[in-house]
């Protein structure tokens, strides 16, 4: 079945929570995304001059072209991670991501823990801001 085009972003997001809707509308405006399609399990969002479509899932959006783009879209404190599908793109987590959170990778950067010196929670960079 070919994807069905939504008449508006508002309608495409009718099943998203209010917090997610705000975030998604913000980055869609920021990235000049103009067309939204109903696909199996996600909303495909495209705009002029974009190489990769964004895939808007209930709990996350994938397909950001750069880390900078993902960071801006995720908003202050929002989670964003590199993706392999397609390689080189980034995905972000929505404020309401429904159900169990995606498993965090067991890497230093995904879960920096606490500073061994002052025991303050470390930022994602892993560099203590207190010491
Ligand atoms: Zn410290």
UniProtKB/TrEMBL annotation:
It comes from the Bacteria. Residues 67-110 are annotated as: Disordered. This is Uncharacterized protein. It comes from Nocardioides albus. The lineage of its organism: Bacteria, Bacillati, Actinomycetota, Actinomycetes, Propionibacteriales.
């Amino acid at each position: 079945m070919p994807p069905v085009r939504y008449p508006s972003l508002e309608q495409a997001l009718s099943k998203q929570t209010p917090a997610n809707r705000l975030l998604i509308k913000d980055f869609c405006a920021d990235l000049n995304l103009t067309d939204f399609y109903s696909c199996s399990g996600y909303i495909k969002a495209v705009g002029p001059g974009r190489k990769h479509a964004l895939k808007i899932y209930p709990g996350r959006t994938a397909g950001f072209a750069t880390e900078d783009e993902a960071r801006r879209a995720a908003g202050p404190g929002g989670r964003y991670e590199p993706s392999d599908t397609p390689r080189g793109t980034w995905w972000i987590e929505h404020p309401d991501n429904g159900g169990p959170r995606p498993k965090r990778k067991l890497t230093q950067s995904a879960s920096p823990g606490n500073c061994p010196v002052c025991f303050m929670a470390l930022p994602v960079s892993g560099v203590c801001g207190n010491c």
